[in-house]
Design brief:
Blueprint (H helix, E strand, L loop, with lengths): L9 E8 L3 H7 L9 E8 L5 E7 L7 H7 L4 E6 L2 E6 L6 E3 L10 H4 L6 E6 L4 E4 L5 E3 H4 L1
Antiparallel strand pairs: 1-3, 1-4, 2-3, 4-5, 6-7, 7-8, 8-9
This protein binds zinc ion.
The site of zinc ion has 8 residues, from loops.
Length: 144
């Protein structure tokens, strides 16, 4: 049996869809960081059948917008002195920059490489975004 030490101070990213954990681990650059990280795959869950959990043994700053775009159902708990002191509500970000890429070949972002790819949330239910410049649609799923 694997025993994971209790976190003194740090962050627990919970309720990650099983199989998605490795992507999140990579997107947050945790493998390249100096922090101690426990990565649990296929943990049993009462709400979900199986889930992944990432525990970071340090109070680091992470990109919650990116995390919300990956999956707004993930829960993030901030731990201090072994207690949960804050739960961060995730949501689809209203605006993302250089995360979603515009696929319209006639868009300025395709012709001018220095122009950042900016998308705005256009449909919460459908998780759709629109390019700031040409209105081309992109889904949050295109990033995942
Ligand atoms: Zn565009």
């Amino acid at each position: 049996m694997l025993i994971i030490e209790k976190i003194q101070n740090g962050i627990v990213i919970d309720h990650i869809k099983a199989g998605q954990g490795i992507k999140i681990f990579n997107w947050l650059g945790l493998g390249k960081s100096q922090h101690t990280v426990a990565f649990v795959v296929n943990a049993s869950s009462s709400i979900m059948r199986k889930k992944d959990v990432i525990k970071i043994y340090d109070a680091i700053s992470i990109n919650y917008e990116l995390l919300g775009l990956i999956d707004p159902n993930i829960t993030v708990n901030i731990i201090k002195n072994e207690l949960v002191i804050q739960k961060i509500p995730l949501q689809l970000p209203e605006r993302v920059e250089n995360v979603l890429m515009c696929k319209n070949p006639r868009c300025i972002t395709s012709t001018e490489k220095y122009v950042p790819h900016i998308f705005h949330l256009s449909g919460k239910e459908t998780e759709t975004y629109r390019c700031e410049y040409c209105d081309e649609e992109s889904g949050a799923g295109d990033f995942r």
